[in-house]
Amino acid sequence: MQLPRVDDPPCRSIAIGQLIRFGTVGIVSTLIHFVVATTWVLYGSSSSLEANLFGFSAAFTWSFVGNAYWVFRFNGHLSHAFRRFLMTSLLTLLLSVLISLAVDWTNRSAYWGVALTALTAPMLSYLACRYWVFKDRSSAVLETRG
Are 60 and 87 in contact (CB under 8 A)? Predict the structure, then answer.
């Protein structure tokens, strides 16, 4: 069985559609985080940390479900994917912290840290999700046999 090449037009359109869906899930996740955290503050919490933890939890849950079922159409073990998704999210956070520290250490404007993080974190997160988090083992077997 011959697998289609990545540069074939149908594969390119699948990858572009996947990127658009991934971006959409990310934007919706950001909005969910903002709405939940803001609502938390409006209705009694004076703690930014507490509000952001609830916002992050809601956004993280949506992001996992949206990426698993809509973006990558994953049909493998959800518990394995969830652990990998959590690990990817934590590593992306670590990357953001390291970029921020490097920018601060070199006395650059904080905007550099924001820009570098905004450019690298989503790209690395997408690659990790596509090739590791939501990589179905049955499709990996087919690719090695093709």
Answer: no
Distance CA 63, CA 91 (A): 16
- pTM for the full predicted model: 0.79
Cα–Cα distance for residue pair 95/100, rounded to 1 Å: 8
**pLDDT tens figures, 68-121:** 999 999 999 999 999 999 999 999 999 999 999 999 999 998 989 889 999 999
| Cβ–Cβ < 8 Å for 103, 116 | yes
3-class DSSP assignment, residue 108: coil
Q: What angle do CA 24, 29, 30 make, to 5 degrees?
A: 100
For the chain, give every domain's residue range: 1-73, 76-146
The rounded radius of gyration (Å) of the Cα atoms in the chain is 18
Cα gap 74→67, rounded to integer Å: 8
Give pLDDT tens digits for 118-128. 999 999 999 99
Which letter does DSSP use for residue 8 in this model? S
Cβ contact 113:100 at 8 Å: yes
